[in-house]
């Protein structure tokens, strides 16, 4: 049976599933329930200096739903912990003492001044926590006070604060990155330059989830007004996956442990983050939607999949897909596919036809009897028909063998690999000659 | 009252008083908002959707379902009513399992179609509950049209004509408008007085005068109508019932199923409606099922439906047959009545088994008898009192195009006209299309 235990930047946990710093990890009661349910670790909800912050007293969350009111995206305007520092520290210590095998990471956010970090770090260290996570990510509320994403958006600040932390604690330092930037590699490089042991990402994405059209105000609405909040949940996973991969394959940051965050809801989501370079994953929205029990599905599913694939440890999975993440310019232009419709599976809804005819390349014919067939002369293999087809595997992309004729271009498919860098239409390629 | 299902003869009150409202409640209860959302989300928004093709009124089903999914059931209702002004009734009584829902690609994919009928009801009920009539009359044309028969075809025709600005007089022989919607459909399909509410709502368009108690041969003649009006639409339905042609069918308590259904529909207290302990229904169509199921729901102990051909030939849909079976109706196939026995009143019906031979249905010679306190005949209706000068095709009024009869100013549609299934939705389509044609003729000169 696969070994799910994890050693992440020196922080050990029985499985790679951690609860992210968020409402589920705000206090002892919740965290004990989480550990009892089987979570491998928690990142305690962000601590700040006293006097503690206050939260709004109206709604803190907004949501996007899919079919049957399935929660797809959650947005929040909650701030860091609104309990006294001393209370949190006491609880952290007690929980860590009672669950020594679980990872206990403490998220921190204090002003961008060294004295503040010097003040809080020893207090956290005293709890016996396994590590700290620097919250440079929250895009709402705290950022207006020069913290959270206001720091995470300035690589120099990241490097500076990270260095302060490394100099003032023996605990491993994880830097949590905000996605509200243009190039995620810059803050990741800054974290590494400051001596960070690891990064975690993504924090939430700045967002307005919806507008109340009666009140003409954004949701969640507080007394007729709304503000931007942090977006998370399944909807943000693709954004998070890309950012994790960018850091995993960047020459300056490769090898740095990454804790993957963003819409992890199932074992498969976790496996994908691991494959793109994460060494652990953090979960919040899924737990907030379904409760702590979901970790059972995640752990058993990941274990089952690893057994099926012959992976024995998390390390064997971590980063396994990274070599296959490349730049567009290196994609093989001699890889030619055509859509193929399985007539036995087709239920004749015609969505492929509407999509292709209206919005793509007019490469699907609607024949008598509502039979849909691909016109090879027009098919550019865009994959839209595959994506809109409601029947799994009904439409597939089949590769043309080398030597076959591409009916669209009239060219014979070459067995050679050839990418844009050498393509005759590429001005840069010509200039190089 | 001490009567029970076991009480011999034909008596009322076989069930506890509370059982009637339960038994005759909505067969398909309306969706609540969330249920409608979930059901609507299953629609794939097919291209050139097969369900639209399968709908006799060509309602844009994917569009109205998408409108429900996006929280606009009122807009959905308008989409429906533009094609089918009786979309509320059709949502309740259409055999969707043989029309739109049979064509649904999800029926092909997983044997579970999008529940189009119930979604349609959700939309139409929402708008109608708000008392909104979504159409306005066009500018008056000064033309007058007589519509004879206020059933689905006549109502649909009258409404479309009124929309076009014509003045319509809508005649019906019965004391209420609605035709089969009011008198001829099982109660559990349209409870709560919906048929009359729908008529009232439809008439909000204005420009329609209803004259009840008037029919061809009863105060009206086609000659006079064509003289007084610019056009006449006949939606007179099928008033006659076919005979069994079995010995003794004149005996007491042998009735037309349509009369029983009509009586039941008009009864203010179902516990006072007498029903036999043993009821036999003869026929294999929707009317037979409606009568048999309702007899059972009234408390009859044994209800037998006998049809002379096989199951595959029954015109009642599979859903209807299953409904009958589920309610405890015994269905016997390949049995035709040969005699009704009894001294004055029916006591037994004698059947003979049949088989499908090379030359059609053949009796096998084997007979059996079923006890019967009541017999309901439901072996088809026929046109009665066709006006003179009208050409028939088979036993119905011959029409060409959008309901044009042989007479220049006379159109016909619904069950009385040849062609098309005898369905509410088909009648609505025919009434609507005839109205459009009448309008074209009247305005085109």
From TrEMBL, chain A:
SUPFAM superfamilies: 4Fe-4S ferredoxins, FMN-linked oxidoreductases. The keyword Mitochondrion does not apply. PROSITE patterns: 4FE4S_FER_1, 4FE4S_FER_2. Residues 337-369, 370-400 form the 4Fe-4S ferredoxin-type domain. Keywords: Iron, Iron-sulfur, Metal-binding, Oxidoreductase. Pfam families: DHO_dh, Fer4_21. It catalyses: 5,6-dihydrouracil + NAD(+) = uracil + NADH + H(+); 5,6-dihydrothymine + NAD(+) = thymine + NADH + H(+). InterPro entries: 4Fe4S_Fe-S-bd, 4Fe4S_Fe_S_CS, Aldolase_TIM, Dihydroorotate_DH_cat. Belongs to the dihydropyrimidine dehydrogenase family. Heterotetramer of 2 PreA and 2 PreT subunits. Involved in pyrimidine base degradation. Catalyzes physiologically the reduction of uracil to 5,6-dihydrouracil (DHU) by using NADH as a specific cosubstrate. It also catalyzes the reverse reaction and the reduction of thymine to 5,6-dihydrothymine (DHT). PANTHER family: DIHYDROPYRIMIDINE DEHYDROGENASE [NADP(+)]. This is dihydrouracil dehydrogenase (NAD(+)). The lineage of its organism: Bacteria, Pseudomonadati, Pseudomonadota, Alphaproteobacteria, Rhodobacterales.
Automatic annotation (TrEMBL), chain B:
Coiled coil: none annotated. Residues 22-131 form the Dihydroprymidine dehydrogenase domain. Pfam families: Fer4_20, Pyr_redox_2. It catalyses: 5,6-dihydrothymine + NAD(+) = thymine + NADH + H(+); 5,6-dihydrouracil + NAD(+) = uracil + NADH + H(+). Its EC number is 1.3.1.1. Involved in pyrimidine base degradation. Catalyzes physiologically the reduction of uracil to 5,6-dihydrouracil (DHU) by using NADH as a specific cosubstrate. It also catalyzes the reverse reaction and the reduction of thymine to 5,6-dihydrothymine (DHT). Keywords: Oxidoreductase. One of its GO terms (molecular function) is dihydropyrimidine dehydrogenase (NAD+) activity. InterPro entries: DPD_II (IPR028261), FAD/NAD-bd_sf (IPR036188), FAD/NAD-binding_dom (IPR023753), Helical_ferredxn (IPR009051). The keyword Oxidoreductase applies. It is an enzyme of class 1 (oxidoreductase). Heterotetramer of 2 PreA and 2 PreT subunits. The keyword Oxidoreductase applies. This is dihydrouracil dehydrogenase (NAD(+)). It comes from Tranquillimonas alkanivorans. Residues 144-431 form the FAD/NAD(P)-binding domain.
């Amino acid at each position: 049976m696969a070994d799910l235990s994890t050693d992440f930047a020196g922080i050990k946990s029985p499985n790679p599933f951690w609860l992210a710093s968020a409402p589920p990890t705000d206090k002892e009661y919740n965290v004990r329930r989480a550990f009892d349910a089987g979570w491998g670790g928690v990142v305690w909800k962000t601590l700040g200096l006293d006097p503690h912050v206050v939260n709004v007293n109206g709604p803190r969350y907004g949501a996007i739903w899919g079919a049957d009111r399935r929660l797809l995206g959650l947005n929040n305007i909650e701030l860091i912990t609104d309990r006294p520092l001393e209370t949190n520290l006491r609880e952290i210590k007690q929980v860590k003492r009672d669950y020594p095998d679980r990872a206990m990471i403490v998220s921190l956010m204090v002003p961008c001044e060294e004295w503040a970090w010097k003040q809080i770090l020893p207090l956290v260290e005293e709890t016996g926590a396994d590590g700290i996570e620097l919250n440079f990510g929250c895009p709402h509320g705290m950022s207006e006070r020069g913290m959270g994403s206001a720091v995470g958006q300035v690589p120099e600040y990241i490097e500076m604060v990270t260095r302060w932390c490394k100099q003032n604690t023996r605990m491993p330092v994880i830097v949590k990155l905000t996605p509200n930037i243009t190039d995620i590699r810059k803050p990741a490089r800054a974290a590494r330059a400051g001596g960070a042991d690891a990064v975690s990402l993504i924090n939430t994405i700045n967002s307005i989830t919806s507008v109340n059209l009666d009140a003409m105000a954004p949701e969640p609405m507080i007394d007729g007004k709304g503000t931007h909040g942090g977006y998370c949940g399944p909807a943000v996973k693709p954004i998070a996956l890309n950012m994790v991969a960018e850091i995993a394959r960047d020459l300056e940051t490769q090898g740095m442990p990454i804790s993957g965050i963003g819409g992890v809801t199932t074992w498969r989501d976790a496996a994908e983050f691991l494959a793109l370079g994460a060494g652990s994953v953090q979960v919040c929205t899924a737990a907030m939607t379904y409760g702590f029990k979901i970790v059972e599905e995640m752990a058993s599913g990941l274990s089952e999949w690893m057994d099926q694939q012959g992976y024995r440890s998390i390390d064997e999975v971590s980063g396994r897909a990274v070599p296959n993440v490349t730049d567009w310019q290196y994609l093989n232009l001699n890889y030619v596919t055509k859509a193929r419709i399985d007539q036995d599976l087709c239920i004749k809804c015609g969505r492929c036809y509407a999509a292709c005819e209206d919005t793509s390349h007019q490469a699907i014919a609607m024949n008598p009897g509502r039979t849909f067939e691909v016109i090879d002369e027009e098919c550019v293999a865009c994959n839209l028909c595959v994506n809109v087809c409601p029947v799994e595997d009904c439409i597939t992309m089949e590769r043309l063998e080398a030597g076959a004729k591409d009916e669209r271009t009239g060219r014979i498919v070459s067995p050679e690999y050839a990418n844009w860098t050498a393509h005759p239409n590429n001005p840069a390629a010509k200039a190089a000659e | 009252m001490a009567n029970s299902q076991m009480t011999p003869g034909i008596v009322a009150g076989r069930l506890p008083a509370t059982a009637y409202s339960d038994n005759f409640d909505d067969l398909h209860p309306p969706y609540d908002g969330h249920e409608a959302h979930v059901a609507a989300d299953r629609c794939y928004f097919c291209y050139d959707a097969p369900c639209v093709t399968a709908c006799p009124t060509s309602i844009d089903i994917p569009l109205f379902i998408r409108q429900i999914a996006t929280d606009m059931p009122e807009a959905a209702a308008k989409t429906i009513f533009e094609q089918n002004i009786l979309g509320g009734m059709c949502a309740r009584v259409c055999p969707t399992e043989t029309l739109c829902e049979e064509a649904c690609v999800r029926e092909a994919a997983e044997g579970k179609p999008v529940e189009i009928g119930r979604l349609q009801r959700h939309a139409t009920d929402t708008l109608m509950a708000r008392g909104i009539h979504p159409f306005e009359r066009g500018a008056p044309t000064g033309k007058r049209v007589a519509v004879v028969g206020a059933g689905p075809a006549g109502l649909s025709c009258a409404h479309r004509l009124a929309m076009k600005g014509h003045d319509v007089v809508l005649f019906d022989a019965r004391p209420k408008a609605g035709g089969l919607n009011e008198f001829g459909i099982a109660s559990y399909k349209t409870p709560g007085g919906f048929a009359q509410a729908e008529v009232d709502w439809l008439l909000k368009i204005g420009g329609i005068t209803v004259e009840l108690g008037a029919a061809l041969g009863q105060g009206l003649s086609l000659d006079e109508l064509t003289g007084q009006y610019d056009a006449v639409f006949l939606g007179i339905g099928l008033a006659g019932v076919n005979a069994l042609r079995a010995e003794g069918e004149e005996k007491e308590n042998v009735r037309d199923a349509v009369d029983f259904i009509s009586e039941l529909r008009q009864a203010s207290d179902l516990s006072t409606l007498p029903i036999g302990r043993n009821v036999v229904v003869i026929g294999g169509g929707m009317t037979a099922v409606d009568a048999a199921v309702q007899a059972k729901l009234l408390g009859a102990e044994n209800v037998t439906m006998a049809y002379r051909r096989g199951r595959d030939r029954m015109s009642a849909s599979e859903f209807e047959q299953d409904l009958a079976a589920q309610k405890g109706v015994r269905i016997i196939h390949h049995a035709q009545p040969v005699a009704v026995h009894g001294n004055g009143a029916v006591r037994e019906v004698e059947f003979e088994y049949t088989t499908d031979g090379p030359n059609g249905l053949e009796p096998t010679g084997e007979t059996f008898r079923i006890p019967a306190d009541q017999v309901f005949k439901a072996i088809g209706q026929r046109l009665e009192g066709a006006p003179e000068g009208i050409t028939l095709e088979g036993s119905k009024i011959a029409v060409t195009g959008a309901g044009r009869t042989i007479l220049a100013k006379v159109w016909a549609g619904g069950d009385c006209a040849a062609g098309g299934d005898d369905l509410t939705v088909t009648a609505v389509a025919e009434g609507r299309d005839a109205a459009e044609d009448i309008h074209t003729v009247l305005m085109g000169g």
